[in-house]
Write a structure and sequence with these properties.
Number of strands: 26
Bound molecules: 5-amino-5-deoxy-1-O-phosphono-D-mannitol
Shape: globular
Helix content: 25-40%
CATH topology of the largest domain: Glutamine Phosphoribosylpyrophosphate, subunit 1, domain 1
Radius of gyration: 26 Å
Low-confidence stretches: none
Structural class: alpha/beta
CATH superfamily of the largest domain: Aminohydrolase, N-terminal nucleophile (Ntn) domain
Number of helices: 19
CATH architecture of the largest domain: 4-Layer Sandwich
């Protein structure tokens, strides 16, 4: 949700921190702040609104410090305001802290600290952290080199909830201490410098070498060292990981918005997802997975658990795994799954899909599944993210960094990867004709070119967006696999254009929703399944009769005169058709949002990575 950055090195920290915040702004953008270690103590500058407001504050250019922390906020506790912005300090202004996450027991801690004489100036949960650190620091009579670290550790052990925090102190002008629990934080390292961030792309232009932290590992940083401690303050060894993403993939590269760039990156992203997993002569390869025929045969069910767009990708996974492997699959929304006491045992495989790998509900669902004895498999786009470290096994989509809040290339690469996984399972199980699987593999290999072909609908969609951008309601219809795309298209439209939209299985319309269809309303349908096309056309006919304007996305032969607009997409196997059929609808959401003059990449109330419950 919130974004945090940090710098410790030889250069002025402030410009580096502001640049990092701008790159992280998609994680939260209602206020921003910075604290650096200056000659006369800790600086503290913050303001409501975007990072731009912070950059314009008087005096910010005078900050000279080479160590600093900064934060861009997505409000949870307390409205967006200067007082509630991070960094927060203790009463004596000895410690500055930035925090991403939620402290669930902050009320108890606040009461305890208030009773101990501390005052609070914000409504945030975070303000307890610097004061708690101060509390432990001032009670500690041992003046050794670990005193600062002990205070941070003792404070963290009192915190319940999720946190990634960075702490600096005017008493330790060479140090920064960082720790995380269930919230993301990475440390980039290069000679004489350390860069910290909630995610990798924000600091990719400085380094490719990263330390990835596990929960409750405490790190003491100087410009040329990083010491890692466990919860007992025993030193632990940690190696850096080299991240291959290139820095330009985290920039707009001439596009107006990240979302448009990411839509256009889909041919490359899909090529990367295919990687070396498919070759025509051999079986699918997943070296990282240990599944045997006996294990897969023993499964009584597979759960696919995720949130939002990732859950929609899970629906196409269900379609492929059930059809190709004959294993029952249930798709669950993570926030429901974790509280519905799902039936899980050793014969259950739980698959978790998460672009960011940091979604709180998905991580909690994963932990629950492990506790109940299931094997867990994570599908993520972010190497080393929490979910990939928590799961028994993990596979990556390799779509490259996705910055826009609205997920596009991550969705198509998730759909693809779970389909390849289904083929892999089917090959192990030997219960599907090789010829059939080979045909599907061929279709997958042809996808990048077909995506390029599909993107040619850009101008038609742009024109159509001009006609419907003032609508109040839009409906999406589909059957079977097309219904999963209808859901995704509807989510995309509402999240960035703020137009109310709903999606329905086309056959369900007459059981209620058709009452909403009136003259002039826009109904968008997806038709890619040859077996269902006639049925869906009949349902569209029902809305046309009631005056609806219709847009159809199809790869089928249809009587086009029936509809207002038809977008033809290339023919492909039904399992993977969402990868093509969603593209015009991603573009539609994008252009409607542009037409309305909205901030496409940072829609209101949303954040890219939902690290709170
Ligand atoms: O990072 P994740 O894939 O776990 O995120 C899940 C959802 O929050 C995410 O897909 C969300 O629905 C997107 N904003 C949709 O565009």
């Amino acid at each position: 949700m919130c974004g945090i950055v940090g710098y410790i090195g030889t250069k002025k920290a402030c410009p580096i921190l502001l640049a990092g915040l701008s790159r992280l702004e998609y994680r939260g953008y209602d206020s921003a702040g910075i604290s650096t270690i200056e000659k006369n103590g800790l600086s503290l500058m913050k303001d409501k609104g975007r990072v731009k407001n912070l950059s314009n504050l008087d005096g910010i250019d005078n900050l000279e410090g080479t160590i600093g922390i900064a934060h861009t906020r997505w409000a949870t506790h307390g409205k967006p305001s200067k007082e509630n912005s991070h960094p927060h300090q203790d009463n004596s202004q000895t410690f500055s802290v930035v925090h991403n996450g939620i402290i669930e027991n902050y009320n108890e801690i606040r009461k305890f600290l208030t009773d101990s004489g501390y005052n609070f100036y914000s409504q945030t949960d975070t303000e307890v952290i610097p004061n708690l650190i101060h509390f432990y620091f001032s009670k500690d009579t041992v003046n050794d080199e670990l005193k600062f670290l002990r205070a941070v550790k003792n404070a963290c052990l009192d915190l319940k909830g999720s946190f990634a925090i960075e702490v600096i102190s005017k008493l330790y002008p060479e140090n920064m201490i960082v720790v995380r629990q269930d919230s993301p934080l990475v440390i980039g390292t290069c000679e004489n410098e350390k860069y910290l961030s909630s995610d990798i792309p924000a600091i990719l232009s400085y380094t490719r070498d990263f330390y990835l932290l596990n929960d409750l590992e405490f790190v003491v940083l100087t410009k040329n060292s990083a010491k890692f401690y466990d919860i007992n303050l025993k030193l632990i060894k940690k190696e850096t990981q080299n991240i291959e993403w290139n820095a330009s993939s985290a920039e707009k590269d001439g596009y107006d918005d990240f979302m448009l760039k990411e839509i256009y990156e889909q041919p490359i992203a899909i090529r990367e997802t295919i990687g070396s997993k498919i070759s025509m002569d051999n079986k699918c390869e997943f070296d990282e997975l240990p599944f045997t025929k006996e294990y897969l045969k023993s499964l009584n069910r597979i759960y696919i658990v995720a949130c939002g767009t990732a859950m929609h990708a899970g629906l196409s996974g269900k379609n492929a795994i059930e059809k190709l492997c004959k294993i029952p699959v249930e798709v669950d929304i993570a926030s429901e799954f974790r509280y519905r006491n799902p039936i899980i045992d050793k014969k259950t495989l739980c698959i978790f899909i998460s672009q960011s790998g940091e979604t709180a509900d998905t991580i909690a669902a994963l932990k629950l599944s492990k506790e109940k004895g299931a094997k867990t498999l994570a599908i993520s786009n972010v190497i080393g993210s929490s979910i990939t470290r928590e799961a028994d096994y993990c596979i990556y989509t390799h779509a490259g960094p996705e910055i826009a809040v609205a997920s596009t290339k991550a969705y198509t690469s998730q759909v693809l990867l779970i389909n390849i996984l289904a083929i892999y399972f089917a090959e192990i199980l030997e219960n599907c004709e090789t010829k059939y699987l080979n045909k599907l593999k061929n279709d997958i290999l042809a996808l990048p070119k077909k995506i390029e072909e599909t993107l040619k609908c850009n101008d038609t969609i742009k024109d159509f967006s001009k006609k419907i951008y003032q609508e109040k309601d839009v409906f999406f219809l589909g059957r079977g696999i097309d219904e999963t795309v209808a859901r995704e298209a509807s989510l995309k439209l509402k999240e960035i254009s703020y137009i109310h939209s709903d999606s329905y299985p086309a056959g369900e319309l007459k059981h209620g929703p058709i009452a909403l269809i009136e003259n002039g309303i826009t109904v968008i349908s997806i038709l890619t399944d040859n077996n269902l096309v006639k049925k869906t056309v009949s349902n569209i006919q029902e809305v046309i009769t009631r005056g609806a304007k219709t847009l159809v996305i199809t790869n089928q032969e249809l009587d086009k005169n029936m509809f207002d607009i038809v977008i033809d997409i290339p023919e492909t196997n039904c399992f993977i058709s969402p990868i093509l059929s969603v593209i015009p609808l991603q573009l539609l959401a994008y252009y409607i949002s542009k037409e309305k003059g909205l901030d496409v990449d940072k829609p209101r109330n949303l954040a890219k990575s939902v690290t709170v419950e």
